[in-house]
Each structure stands twice: as structure tokens, then as C-alpha cells.
């Protein structure tokens, strides 16, 4: 594609970057995308979504879905870029880049519509940051009749021009837990008359650390972090109640289930040992982003035509793309977006995506959509 095409696309990204909207409030962004697509003759399909857009190019089966997330974060931008955010929010995860590359891909695929061997469904997904958007899209019917789905996240630790990919887990299963412990308040001088909530909580936390150390195979991995404890107010009273919270990260669906099961057992039996009551609340966080065993090598090989494709390690971050992969085959890649040795990480107020990263992201969508249409057509 020409420089004119990419110059226009870069301007589009800068505009989107200046006008970020946080999860489930992507109203102007939704309008912007709809207008952009309508102007180039792409049909918007009316799914019941509050925010986000689903559109289609081509007709008939198979259907390959391309997904980009569109939401921003409640962060005040400090990049000093001339196209920095004009609002009290920031595209600090680079979703401005994701949606722009999908707009660019749509524009290219539209010019090839007559030759498409099926349908490309464009999913501009809202609310990735609060892990609600993929569920909303699935609920609205966005995956209906879709054979496979392709997505990616920009990665500031890879250079523009690089794609990182692997079969199996590429992003972690994320668990968010909050454990409330109810003991029995007593004078600090008469602990025998109460149930010690403080000792119960600290013992539970100690015991939890044995899960990863003693029950996860050395060939698998998991992380369990308790990050916040709140119990008691003063020096001479044993408190009646307290809580702690934190997160678990896993990379294998089986390991995930096993760690959750052991977590529950340890929390309950330790509390029981002290005679305390306990309850566990789990957040609505994503499962393992697990790349399809058959499709990933196809995309890995095919992407070598336009990018340097490298076998990547999984990230310990989470992605609600995992929800799609629970339903249908899916492939999720990392696309290089910065590559400087000290490039700021996702969700930092000085996070920067380089403009020159766009062509590989556009090609990733276009070329792999065509490749998978062909694959499912022959199947
Ligand atoms: Zn993010
Ligand atoms: Zn993100």
C-alpha cells in the first residue's frame, strides 16, 4: 500500500489518540468508527451493543473474525506528543493503534471484496480493560457462525516489524480474589475468649504460598500474590473481621483449575482450624489466552511474508480475547510497537506506540484473514 494510504492512517490514529474514552463509554469512538466504515462502503451489522462496532466485508461462509479493542484508561497522559490526549483519559495500552490497524485492514479488504472466499467480520470491541467487552460481543451474537478469530496486542518490547507468536498460552489466566475472614473480637489480653482474625489471615496467607512451591510441577508455572491486607485498627483489641486480596496467574487451563481448587481448600480448612468463618469472592477476570494448535503455525508461517516472526514467551498480563478462544479457535499475537531498550510499559502515562509499526499490524489482519478464509474454504 502507498505512503498516501499510511499517511492518512497515521493521521487517523493520532486523531483517535487525542480523543480517548474509557471502558463502556466509547460513544464518540463508536460513532467515529461507524462513520469511517460507512464512508468506504462497508456494511455495519446491527448487533445489540451499547458501544463497539461489528461490520462485515464479503458474503457467505466461512466467516473469519478480526478483533481490535477500542477503549482507553483513566490516566493523564505525560508523553508530550504533539498528538497527546485532549481528555482526562489516555490510550496507554495502545488500543488506538489496534482499532486504526483494523480500519486500515478493512479498507484494503474492501477493495478485494469481490474475490473474498467468504466473509470477514470486523469486531471493534469495547471494554477490554475491565474484561467485559468480549462477553458483551459474544452475548450480542458477534461470534455466531464464525469459524476462527484473529487478534493481537501491540508490544512495546518488540520492534516495529516484529511479530511474537506461540501456540498454547500467550497471555496468563488472571484470577482476582478477595477473602473475607470473620473471627470473634476479644481484648488483646484475653485471646482465649475470641477467635483471632489476624492470626487466621496471616496463617492462610502463609499456607497459600505452598501451592505454587509444592504442588505445581516444575515444568508448569503459576504466580500467587497477596497484595493487600486489611485487619484491625488498634493495639489492644483483636478485631472481629478482616480481609485480604490479590491475584493468581496461570498459563495452562488445567493448572489454573488445580490452583483455584487448592486455594479454596487451604482458605477454608485453615479458617476452620481457627474456628473462623471465611468467604472467597472471585473477580470477573479473563482465562488463559490460549492459541489454537492447528491455526497458530499457519499464521506463524504466513506472517513471515511481511514481518520478522519470533517465538515469544507468554506475558503474565491478561486479555479478554481468551473468552473468544473458549468458544472458537483463535490466534492472538504480539506486534512490535516500540522496541527501545527502556520503552515504557503498557498502562504507563508515557507509553508510546511508534507510527512505523502500523503496516505490519494492517498486514497481519489482511493477510491472515485471507489465509484463513482459504483454509476454511478447503476444509
Ligand atoms: Zn491494557
Ligand atoms: Zn490492551
UniProtKB/TrEMBL annotation:
Cofactor stoichiometry and binding remark: The Mn(2+) ion enhances activity.
Positions contributing to Mn(2+) binding: 93, 95, 129, 153, 347
GO biological process, one term: lysine biosynthetic process
Ranges for domain Peptidase M20 dimerisation: 176-271
Domain of life: Bacteria
Pfam families: M20_dimer, Peptidase_M20
InterPro entries in UniProt: Amidohydrolase, Bact_exopeptidase_dim_dom, Peptidase_M20, Peptidase_M20_dimer
Required cofactor names: Mn(2+)
Keywords, comma-separated and alphabetical: Amino-acid biosynthesis, Diaminopimelate biosynthesis, Hydrolase, Lysine biosynthesis, Manganese, Metal-binding
Cited SUPFAM superfamilies: Bacterial exopeptidase dimerisation domain, Zn-dependent exopeptidases
GO molecular function term, any single one: metal ion binding
Protein name: Amidohydrolase
Source organism of this protein record: Streptococcus henryi
Amino acid at each position: 500500500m502507498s505512503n498516501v494510504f499510511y499517511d492518512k492512517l497515521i493521521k487517523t490514529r493520532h486523531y483517535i489518540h487525542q480523543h480517548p474514552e474509557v471502558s463502556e463509554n466509547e460513544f464518540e469512538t463508536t460513532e467515529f468508527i461507524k462513520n469511517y466504515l460507512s464512508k468506504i462502503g462497508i456494511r455495519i451489522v446491527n448487533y445489540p451493543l451499547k458501544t463497539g462496532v461489528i461490520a462485515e466485508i464479503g458474503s457467505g461462509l466461512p466467516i473469519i473474525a478480526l478483533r481490535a479493542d477500542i477503549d482507553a484508561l483513566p490516566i493523564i497522559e505525560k508523553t508530550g506528543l504533539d498528538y497527546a490526549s485532549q481528555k482526562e483519559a489516555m490510550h496507554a495500552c495502545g488500543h488506538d493503534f489496534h482499532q486504526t490497524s483494523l480500519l486500515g485492514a478493512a479498507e484494503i479488504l474492501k477493495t478485494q471484496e469481490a474475490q473474498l472466499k467468504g466473509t470477514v467480520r470486523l469486531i471493534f470491541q469495547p471494554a477490554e480493560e475491565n474484561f467485559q467487552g468480549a462477553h458483551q460481543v459474544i452475548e450480542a451474537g458477534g461470534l455466531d457462525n464464525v469459524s476462527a478469530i484473529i487478534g493481537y496486542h501491540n508490544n512495546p518490547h518488540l520492534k516495529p516489524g516484529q511479530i511474537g507468536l506461540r501456540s498454547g498460552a500467550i497471555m496468563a489466566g488472571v484470577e482476582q480474589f478477595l477473602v473475607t475472614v470473620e473471627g470473634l473480637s476479644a481484648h488483646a489480653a484475653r485471646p482465649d475468649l475470641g477467635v483471632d482474625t489476624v492470626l487466621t489471615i496471616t496463617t492462610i496467607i502463609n499456607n497459600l504460598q505452598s501451592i505454587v512451591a509444592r504442588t505445581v510441577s516444575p515444568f508448569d508455572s503459576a504466580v500467587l500474590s497477596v497484595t493487600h491486607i486489611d485487619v484491625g485498627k488498634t493495639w489492644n483489641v483483636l478485631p472481629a473481621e478482616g480481609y485480604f486480596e490479590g491475584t493468581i496467574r496461570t498459563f495452562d487451563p488445567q493448572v489454573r483449575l488445580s490452583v483455584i481448587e487448592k486455594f479454596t481448600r487451604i482458605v477454608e480448612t485453615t479458617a476452620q482450624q481457627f474456628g473462623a468463618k471465611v468467604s472467597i469472592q472471585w473477580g470477573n477476570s479473563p482465562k488463559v489466552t490460549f492459541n489454537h494448535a492447528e491455526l497458530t503455525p499457519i499464521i506463524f508461517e504466513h506472517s513471515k511474508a511481511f514481518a520478522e516472526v519470533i517465538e515469544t514467551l507468554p506475558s503474565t498480563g491478561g486479555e479478554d480475547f481468551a473468552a473468544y478462544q473458549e468458544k472458537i479457535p483463535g490466534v492472538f499475537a504480539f506486534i512490535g510497537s516500540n522496541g527501545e531498550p527502556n520503552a515504557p510499559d503498557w498502562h504507563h502515562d508515557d507509553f508510546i506506540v511508534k507510527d512505523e509499526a502500523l503496516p505490519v499490524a494492517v498486514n497481519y489482519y489482511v493477510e491472515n484473514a485471507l489465509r484463513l478464509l482459504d483454509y476454511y474454504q478447503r476444509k
